[in-house]
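Example record

One chain of 268 residues, shown exactly as stored in the release files.
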Amino acid sequence: MSNLNVTALIGEMAQTKSDSLEILTNIKNIHDVLSASPTNQNLPAEFRKISVPMIYSAWESHFTASIAVCFRALKDINKSANEHSSTIRAIWLQQESFFSKYIDMIKNIYDIDSHKSLSEKMTNMKRKVRKGHFKLTTDVLDSIDTFNSTGLNKQVNVDDLVMTFANVNKVVTEMNMDVIGLDHGSLDLSQLDALVGLRNAFGHGQFTTNVGKRQFLQMLSYADQLVNGLYQEVEVWLSHLDSELKDTHVDSWRCDTPCNISFSHKHI
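Predicted structure tokens for this chain:
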């Protein structure tokens, strides 16, 4: 029996959408008030500059929360890890202490010899892979077998699974959506890198950059579209996941490639 509560997850995501859209609305309202004021006409222009990071933040906040909701949904499904896609397993595997320990060992072996030639590295590699390393590798393989045959670790903080790399730009957005199985083609990501770039410019003190009123309003509208578009895509994904889980004729809720499922009926 799955512990998936789609209604609660959609409700949680709807709240993050509402919070982000409220920020965008407030930014526009403040700008309208400043623009209507007869005194100090420089204020609207300065406000547009300092608002850019907030406009971007409205997008990032909703994005990270929405992706985390998807991971929470996958965590709540009572399926063994090997019934999930390789990308989902890779995300969860990176959180396992045994895997991190093994990666650290491999990095240790190579980092020590980083200045040496490839032939020297390989020679030293043979010497370094001693009994302890062999034992650790064996333990890791056993642990991976156990990992694959049991459910995804429910103790993992799903917020830590979201890959942001400091900026949620076009590549990062597509990467996270691909991992889960969301259609990033449903979003218009054509202006996202420009928004991130402008946000970073102001974040690094490039205050001479000007943001015109038309550009400002376009950014607000674009961020609004991104937030709503992602919400709709995740809502569809959650609803589809819920439907597949309830379909007793489907052996697994997911397929790496499009599934052609046919059913045979025996008549007695």
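Notes: The first helix runs from residue 6 to 36.
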